[in-house]
Amino acid sequence: MAGGKCLALIAHDQKKDDMAEFARRNRETFANWKIVATGTTGGRVLEAVPDLDVTRLKSGPLGGDQQIGALIATGEVDALIFFVDPLTPMPHDVDVKALMRLAIVYDIPMALNEATADKLIATLHA
């Protein structure tokens, strides 16, 4: 993923529609970024905004969270937006926590809900 800024997008199942709509609303800003996303989230974003540069990785439970974590650790991801559903139990919760830990350790901007993501995108667009 050489060159350009890279944004990672992840959304729990109950938040995928929200992420697709968020991408649609922020299409202009996202057009200037490379996007990596877990499999299903990336597919939903591409359905909403087909002209974006989205690299789809594995789905979260199948290793997509770890793939994004590896990209964070190697300095290839500049920001993370992860729409978390706190009301649904997640069997791969440990993977999610590991991903958030890496974002904190490597000090990259991270938004876990739409309100914070709006603020983050506003600073990225400025």
UniProtKB/TrEMBL annotation:
BP GO terms, sorted: methylglyoxal biosynthetic process
Enzyme class: lyase
EC number: 4.2.3.3
Active site per the UniProt annotation: D65
Molecular function terms from GO: methylglyoxal synthase activity
Gene Ontology CC, one term: cytosol
InterPro entries for this protein: Methylgl_synth (IPR004363), Methylglyoxal_synth_AS (IPR018148), MGS-like_dom (IPR011607), MGS-like_dom_sf (IPR036914)
Record keywords: Lyase
PROSITE patterns, alphabetized: METHYLGLYOXAL_SYNTH (PS01335), MGS (PS51855)
CDD domains on file: MGS
Catalytic activity line of the entry: dihydroxyacetone phosphate = methylglyoxal + phosphate
Family, as annotated: Belongs to the methylglyoxal synthase family.
Function: Catalyzes the formation of methylglyoxal from dihydroxyacetone phosphate.
Protein name, as recorded: Methylglyoxal synthase
